[in-house]
Amino acid sequence: MKLSELSMNHISIANRDLINRILFDGVNDDGKPGDLIFVFGSLSANKYRVPHAVDLYKSGRSPKLLMSGGALEEPEAISMRKKAIEFGVPEQDIIVEAHSKNTVDNVLRSKEVIDEYLGLQNIRRILVVTTFYHIRRCYLTLKTFMPEHIEYSLCPAQDNNTRPNNW
C-alpha cells in the first residue's frame, strides 16, 4: 500500500505520528548556500515552487536555477523558466531539463544537464525545491543517483496542501 492510498479515518494517532516522522523529520532548510537550486516540476510549480526558488536565488543562496520537468504539452520546466524570468531572474542563470516524466527521471536527466552546463565535479551543494510532501523522495533519489560528494539543502515550498500539519 502507498502512503497516498491511506485514509486518515483508518490511521491511528500513533501511525499518523510515524508517517509524519517519515515524511517530514529533518526537512528543514539549513540556510547554507549552494551551487544550484534544483526545482522539481509539477502542475502547481509556478504557484509555489518557482516563487520560493526565486526568493532563494535573489537572497544570494545560489547563482543558478535548474528547472526540471517535462510531463505536459508545454513542459513544466519551460513554464517554470518563463515564470522565473517574469520574477526577474536573468535567462542566463536558468538551466532547463524539459523531458523528465517523474522524480527519478528528473534526477537522471538533470544529472546529464548539470554535467553538460556546469560539470558535476564543480557542484558541491544543491538546494532542493519542491513541496514538503515530495522533498524526502527527491532527496533520497538525488542521494541514490547523483555523485556522492554532493550535499543538499532541503528547501520545501509552502503550498496549501502538503505541509506537516495538513497532509
TrEMBL record:
Annotated DUF218 domain residues: 35-145
What Pfam families does this protein map onto? DUF218
Cellular component GO terms held in the UniProt record: plasma membrane
Q: Which domain of life is it from?
A: Bacteria
Name this polypeptide is given: DUF218 domain-containing protein
Q: What is the lineage of its organism?
A: Bacteria, Bacillati, Bacillota, Bacilli, Bacillales
